[in-house]
Predict the 3D structure of the following.
Amino acid sequence: QVQLVEFGGGLVQAGESLRLSCAASGLTFGSYSMGWFRQAPGKEREFVAAITWSGGSSYYADSVKGRFTISRDNAKNTVALQMNNLKPEDTANYYCAASSLVLSLHRPTNYRYWGQGTQVTVSS
């Protein structure tokens, strides 16, 4: 079966950095665009970043642009999210997801598979 497993969440202070990783199995990883989404208590799931099949194009939400970097290693079936200069507003459960598309990757409905999430908490 398909599995997406996130690692790297934790509790940090504002201004610090975290690196999230997502390990995929049970799918042809290079055939999927990969995305990161997050959901805070009382809020809907929102787009954070995405990267296309070969890693040629990356996209970011305005709220994280310049601070977060998404990358992938198709040989290792992994996608990562480097998060720098974290802010309290970044506090959320972060989800890794896989999409068969290359367009409209900001839309959660375009992703077929989802991980279980990893919690990121940023204190003031």
The chain has a mean pLDDT of 96. The first strand starts at residue 3 and ends at 7. DSSP finds no helices and eleven strands in the chain. The radius of gyration is 13 Å.
